[in-house]
Amino acid sequence: MYLNNLLAAADPIVDWELFQTSLWPMIQGGIQYTIPLTLISFAIGLMIALLTALARLSNSKILAGIARVYVSAIRGTPLLVQLSIIFFGLASIGVVIDPFPSAVIAFSLNVGAYASEIIRASILSVPKGQWEAGQAIGMTHRQALARIILPQATRVSIPPLSNSFISLVKDTSLASTILVTELFRKSQEIAARTYEFMQLYITAAILYWIVCFTLSVIQGRIEKRLDRYVAK
User: Fold this and answer.
1) What is the mean predicted confidence (pLDDT) over 184-194?
2) Cα(219)–Cα(121) distance, integer angstroms
3) CB of 45 within 8 A of CB of 105?
4) What value does the mean pLDDT take over residues 36-55?
5) pLDDT value, residue 12
6) What phi and psi values does residue 13 have, to the nearest 5 degrees?
7) Number of CB atoms found within 10 A of residue 84's CB
């Protein structure tokens, strides 16, 4: 009797039939858009970040100034505004970009700005003696950077870059505002038809959490593996 009353009370809270029918479309949205959007944007963003970090550290005042303005502009404006400018703003002046590429551009620029500071700080954390050691054995500045400095900086940058990657997974939900049918957009579309906003949004949150938790576990294993190359 108690079990029947408990199930009856739970029915209005959780619609299991809706859960079963909505789960796969939301997962599909994650597989088709959320994950590719994250991977592509992060890969492009890292390339932008490395170039920006090297520009900030260069002796060229022009390159350093351009990089500084770029980082300041991206970090000083909301990601949602950046998405809107690229998708809606450019379209208003005749430059039409599809939703998915627009999201890739916005996320890549955003990752590039934040990750560039991580990479720059990682490079600066390498003792100056490492540069001098490279020069002592006849290496050029570029060779010392590629063979000595960047490998050491990579180990230092792994944890914060991994955190940026995990944050990017969650930030992709903003792509729903420019009609990219990723995981959260799918939950919005289903909720608009069924009016079960709470249940569907909680389901979306759980799916995001599962992905981020999995990435956190992978991050921990990578860091543990790289610890073998750190002198103790």
Assistant:
1) 86
2) 20
3) no
4) 95
5) 54
6) -85, -45
7) 17
- What does pTM read for this prediction? 0.84
User: What average pLDDT does this structure show over 171-194?
Assistant: 88
Structural tokens at position 24: 């796969």
Q: Which of 187, 190, 215, 136 has its CA nearest to residue 30?
A: 187
- Paired tokens of 181: 């049918």
Residue 108 and residue 47: Cα distance in Å, rounded?
A: 9
R_g (Cα) of the chain, nearest Å:
23
- In this structure, which amino acid lies at residue 214? T
For residues 69 and 55, give the distance between their C-alpha atoms in angstroms, rounded to a whole number.
Answer: 12
Token pair recorded at residue 167: 């944050």
3 state SS of 181: coil
> Computed from CA positions of residues 98, 101, 107, 108, in that sequence, does the dihedral angle turn out positive or negative?
negative
Length of the chain: 232
Confidence category of residue 227, pLDDT binned at 50, 70, 90: low
Give the residue among 30, 81, 24 at the shortest CA–CA distance from 184. Answer: 30
First to last CA, the chain: 63
